[in-house]
Amino acid sequence: MGRRAKAAYAEVEKVLGLPEPLWQELFEEVERLKALYLRLKEAPREERVALEEEALRSLAHLWGHAKVMWDELELEEEG
Questions:
Q1: Residue 69: other Cβ atoms inside 10 A
Q2: Residue 23 to residue 51: CA distance in whole angstroms
Q3: Is 28 left (phi over 0), alpha (psi -120 to 50) or beta?
Q4: Number of other residues whose CB lies within 10 A of the CB of residue 34
Q5: Chain centroid to CA 48: how far?
Q6: Are 37 and 4 in contact (CB under 8 A)?
Q7: pTM metric for this prediction
Q8: C-alpha–C-alpha distance, residues 73 and 65, integer Å
Q9: Mind listing the pLDDT tens digit for each residue in 16-61?
């Protein structure tokens, strides 16, 4: 997550104890994955490998977002 998320952390209402910038970054990546999925469904065979690699990177990015969010939730519960 970028600095923008940290700077805005205290300024926004939280959902599930998480700041809005974290949610927005997650949703942006979900939209990117959805677009890749739709492109993959229609892609000719020669384009599929590159698109599949992009989709895997997007899934890894989403996992990273989920991990950060989960860690934030755990810290909120402990504190």
A1: 19
A2: 25
A3: alpha
A4: 11
A5: 22
A6: no
A7: 0.70
A8: 12
A9: 778 888 889 899 999 999 999 999 999 999 999 999 999 999 999 9
